[in-house]
Amino acid sequence: MTIRAVGFDLDYTLAVPTSDRTTILNEATAATGAPELSRSAYLDAHSQNLTSETRTPIFEHLLAERGSDADPEALASAYRERIADALVPIDGARDFLTTLRETYAVGLLTNGPRVAQRDKLETLGWTDAFDAALVTGELPAGKPDSAAFEALLEALGTAPEETVYVGDDVDADIGGAAAAGLVPVQVIFEGGPEPDPKAAAHVPREELTTRLPTLLAEL
Questions:
Q1: Which residues of the chain have pLDDT under 50?
Q2: What rounded mean pLDDT belongs to the chain?
């Protein structure tokens, strides 16, 4: 089956933070008078709120656990602003996406609250960079749920076996795409997850823009 479409994850795949997320979280809590929160606790709460409008419910939960009266909405806003400010595209990303769209339908499927993820796309200047850009905060389910990938397929108008999905997360991206019948390609980088055998291919992130077009033609 010929590949007709390619979908991408956003964070740590097409765009990376210039500051680590723990530092950004600590800066946001300090700015809003909230107690220090661990990155692992945040990720656990985030995984339960993939279809939320904002990050406010995440921080409501975390602050309540710590008995804090800090404003979760203010903390969510501070964290969102710092994340967006620290996010940069991988080298050559915009031209890469433009060129891909000459041959393939190109989509985005990113986990996270609607406001946060749309803000990232606005900051990156990518509101028109994809044929379809889906945020799980606007969907009934997030990755790795097959329903999220089915929404991407519907938006792109392709069958699973015709669609490559590129991401870094072993469970949400690679496992989820494989379970939904898409062709997973794992982005590899220092400090990231180990190569997963469920992926059809593994590509170093710094080589993604140069190697993926050839790989798509070969699959």
A1: none
A2: 95
For 142-204, give the DSSP string.
-TTSHHHHHHHHHHHT--GGGEEEEES-IIIIIIHHHHTT-EEEEEE-TTSPPPPTTSSEEEE
Distance, CA of 204 to CA of 13 (rounded, Å): 10
Are the beta carbons of 111 and 136 closer than 8 angstroms?
A: yes
Q: Where is 49: in which H helix or E strand?
A: none
Identify the pLDDT of residue 84. 85
Q: Is 125 exposed, middle or buried (0-12, 13-18, 19+ CB in 10 A)?
A: exposed
In sequence order, what E strands does the chain have?
5-8, 15-17, 87-89, 105-110, 132-135, 163-167, 183-188, 201-204
What tokens does 213 get?
Answer: 């077009």
Nearest to 13 by CA among 162, 207, 215: 207
Model pLDDT, residue 167:
98
Cβ-based neighbour number of residue 92 at 10 Å? 12
| Domain layout of the chain by residue ranges | 5-17+88-218, 21-86
Q: How many CB atoms lie within 10 A of CB 35?
A: 13
pTM: 0.91
Which residues, in sequence order, are bridge partners of residue 88?
Answer: 16
Question: For 201, phi and psi rounded to 5 degrees?
Answer: -160, 160
pLDDT at 48: 87
Which is the CATH superfamily of the domain at 5-17+88-218? HAD superfamily/HAD-like (3.40.50.1000)
